[in-house]
Design brief:
The chain is α+β, with helices and mostly antiparallel strands and 82 residues long. The chain has helices spanning 19-32, 37-44, 48-55, 62-81; strands at 3-8, 13-18. It is built from four helices and two strands; from the N terminus they run E-E-H-H-H-H.
Length: 82
């Protein structure tokens, strides 16, 4: 499985995201909440094209990958608290 690897040497940050697992988690969450890609893109302030790339496990910039991962993590945390 391909991963996104990000390193920021100046701050010592290293992040790895399994693209295929993230793609599946993102699409599963979106469909479970009955949202279209367009609706979710507007809700998260990203483009529909970005969501398409993420859901197909295609390369994203590390900043966009982090943004989507953080948004999904926030949504899942809200579900846990409900």
């Amino acid at each position: 499985m391909e991963t996104i690897k990000v390193e920021m040497k100046t701050q010592g940050l290293h992040v790895e995201i399994n693209q295929e697992e993230f793609a599946l988690a993102l699409k599963t969450w979106r469909l479970r909440h009955d949202l279209t890609q367009k609706q979710l893109a507007e809700r998260w302030n990203v483009t529909r094209y970005t969501l398409i790339r993420a859901e197909h496990a295609q390369n994203l910039t590390w900043m966009m990958a982090y943004k989507l991962y953080a948004k999904l993590a926030d949504e899942l945390k809200k579900e846990e608290q409900s």
